[in-house]
Fold this protein.
Amino acid sequence: MKKLKLVMVGNGMAGVRTLEELLKLAPDLYDITVFGAEPHPNYNRILLSPVLAGEQTFEEIVLNDLAWYQDNGIDLRLGRKVVDVDRRKRVVIADDGSSAEYDRLLIATGSNPFILPVPGNKLDGVIGYRDIADTEMMMATAKTHSHAVVIGGGLLGLEAANGLKMRGMDVTVVHLTDWLLERQLDKTAGKLLQSALEARGIKFRLNTVTDELMDNGEGRVCAVQFKDGDVIPADLVVMAAGIRPNTELAEKAGIPCNRGILVNDTMQTYDPRVYSIGECANHRGIAYGLVAPLFEQAKVCANHLAQLGFARYQGSVTSTKLKVTGIDLFSAGDFMGSEGTETITLSDPIGGVYKKLVIKNDILVGGCLYGDTADGGWYFRQIKENANISEIRDHLMFGESALGDVGHQGQSSAANMPDSMEVCGCNGVCKGTIVKAIQENGLFSVDDVKKHTKAASSCGSCAGLVEQILISTVGGAADVKPKSEKAVCGCTELNHGQVRKLIREKHLTSLKQTMGELGWTSPDGCATCRPALNYYLISTWPGEAKDDPQSRLINERAHANIQKDGTYSVVPRMWGGVTNPSELRRIADVADKYNVPMVKVTGGQRIDLLGIKKEDLPGVWKDLDMASGHAYGKSIRTVKTCVGSEFCRFGTQNSTQLGIDLEHDLFNMWSPHKVKLAVSGCPRNCAEAGIKDVGIIGVDSGFEMYIGGNGGIKTEVAEFFVKVKTAEEVREYNAAFLQLYREEAFYLERTVHYMQRVGMEHIKKAVLEDEANRKALAARLQYALSFEQDPWKERIETPVLKKEFDRIPVVAVEEAAV
Amino acid sequence: MNWLDICALEEINVLGSRIVDGPKGDIAIFRTSNDEVFALDDRCPHKGGPLSQGLIYGKRVACPLHNWQIDLESGEALAPDVGCSHKYPVKVEGGRVLLALKTLSDCA
């Protein structure tokens, strides 16, 4: 098939990100040509300020070197400005007369600095602050001249002022309004910021209008005159009074513009062949100037260029961070507050800390932090997720750590961690390594950090902390999303919810069919998506979809837990934690016969035989003659019980028998993640039912059921679900809840996280309030389990399944070894 | 090259592997979805994990212990990890898998 032609005008961050996303989705769809007016490959424009301040070099902020363009077969035309588009002939024309035809055109021309219309604005020494050339010019001027004036006290202006000050110039910032950063901070925070910058030697003139830039007689600026008549010396004037979308080319081509090139939710302009993204585009009245929204736009645009056609851009909540070392400020959303909003403030002018949170209808809608921004990322997430904060309102101001135990999810205070502190305990990655990787490689997502550093790539429990570090390093540019919105893995654009829904709607029953129909970009998927898809298929279509052992990770394939030396552990099931002399004798015999190096009692009331060779597993299972304990699976694990009313003098219910019954009810159940239960016979709760996925506490009048507990990485106390009268009811409610979880949760989502996502109300509605639905759920679980059998027994009895465990001997090895 | 007859191709599951008792330890033989076969020392360069037990996709295997991604063709770990497992010449002829016990190394 002949490739389509894609031409991109503009070689900046938003545009190139679109190409990266596009190449991931459809690597062979287009011949791509890129025109860049600057003579550089794509670099990280938001890091120009650290370059100016001497903290980084230009080489360090390049995002895509020339080899990248070459490797991806992109025809890169640097130093050429596109001057015209002939939309009828579908061709763009550059300033050197060269041209390129297109089937799709992407205009990503970015923005231009706004140059004040005052006399003298064309003099030498007067510049905007936009690109590498401007930065280099400022650095050179700082060596030969001494007085700099920055017009505009916004983010860019202050970063420029700070950089020039660091390079030894005398700097004055001229600002039109009452306080600095009026688009990011309220007045109080703005004043705090001003004093901090004044302490560094930067001078300010607020409420000041520039009247004229004066010529030194040789065509170079020498002073600035203000409306009030004052004159100050200036060898360099930096215009940082805002940016204007660069729509020159689009307007010339007759594409409708209004403070930006007008685009719809698919980033398409009025000409369906022409797309536009980035600072030049106006989406629903907003031309974004921050990098995070631009990356979201890039994803959407790539989706449509790749002809997938399902993504929509619906605007962004933005947050900002000033990149001036030593000054911490953070703002997001509606930080000023408006009608119908409430404000919580904390102000310590002497200590230099100011925090303001803006709340509307119990939802955090904005905030600005100065001096202590450790919780900025956490607040930002609350804002983006529209979380209801009414229950935590009392503590909201004091950040997430004030909410109690935060475990290792890491929302604590990434910003305050020393560089040497270990973040990822699995792979031994320190904070400093992560920060360095983020800065040097220009990373914006947790996935990127995983790829470059291995942090959070094993057990994943530090992913939250890595996310915090990412946010504290790159601020609002961080690409952070809740799991429910994230793509399953690099093989697809779809998230878990979409995949589940499509498997159901399209009645997909095999992996191959699913990957084909849903446009997987890699033929076999990967180690992340295949186990998830396999689970979704068998849980959605029991009896119809066939389990694929090759898409299960090793423990579920070998039906035992792999250990560090490649041996396995075997945990036979002990129903309700009850065993007998005959089972114990068999366990002892197996331990002797196979020289088991360790026999250990587990936390789930059973016995673990460790250090068994894989080829011995079927023999061990046969000799044990006990059911599989599924200690290795995303499946039902154990039902822990206390001795209950049969023996205990306090017992009110027969918890042991109920535990055994529940365990039989759920035997062989695969689930999104592991599932553990416990049944206690009285409120003393010896079986620790409060930290189980389903915990049951017997009381005199019946049973209390709790759901969503977790004793692992982060302890979560189960929430009260319902009180019922009989053991039969417990079994029905339990089956219904777990079936709901099996049908709705995302792969690797524990009950607690599922509950947090869908809400307790939803679960109660489905299981408690609707009796017919409860019974239907329980019946569906029973139906699904009717197709399952004990995997150990199956493997002892079926020769073809035993193959997995056999080794191939090699004869005549001596002669063969060369 | 001294080729040893190992087994029929069907004896290895698609996207599966088998372990051969090699003279210097286990050798893992992998079969991809296109019925290509590859042979590597059954030891991950990271902590010696048995690669034969990993999940196979494309021409890669993910180590079962810590999810290092190993390229089946070269035996090398994918960035950011660094390391290499020795590879062995292996081919399919007439439906039989043939292996030569000569270690090849691309390892830098």
Summary: The domain at 3-100 of chain B is CATH 2.102.10.10 (Rieske Iron-sulfur Protein).
